[in-house]
Amino acid sequence: MKNFDEFSKPEEYISPMDKHIRSVIRNWADKEVMPYRRKYDEDWKDHHIIEPAFDKLMGNSGIGLQKALFPPELGGWGIGQSDSAFTISCALAEEVGRADTAMAVAFMVTYWPLTTILVEPHVNWRLAKEFAPMFCNAEKAVFAANAMTEPQGGADIENLELTGGKTIRTVARLEGDEWVINGHKLWPTNSGGVAKLFVVPCTTKPGSTDLKDFAMIFVPAETKGVTQGGPYEKAGMAADKNSDIWFEDVRVPSWYRAHGPSMDAQIFREIIPWGLAASMGFMCGAMLNLYEILYDFVSTKTYKNKPLKEDDHIASIIGRIAGDIDICRILSYEAAKMGDRRNKPYGYPIYSDEVACKMRNLKDFVSDRAVDIFGKAMDVLGPYGADREYDIEKHWRDIKIIQLWMGGKQLCQMEAARYFFNCKTL
Ligand SMILES: Cc1cc2nc3c(=O)[nH]c(=O)nc-3n(C[C@H](O)[C@H](O)[C@H](O)COP(=O)(O)OP(=O)(O)OC[C@H]3O[C@@H](n4cnc5c(N)ncnc54)[C@H](O)[C@@H]3O)c2cc1C
Question: Which of 13, 140, 216, 283 would you label with 298, given CA atoms 20 to 30 Å apart?
Answer without folding.
Answer: 283
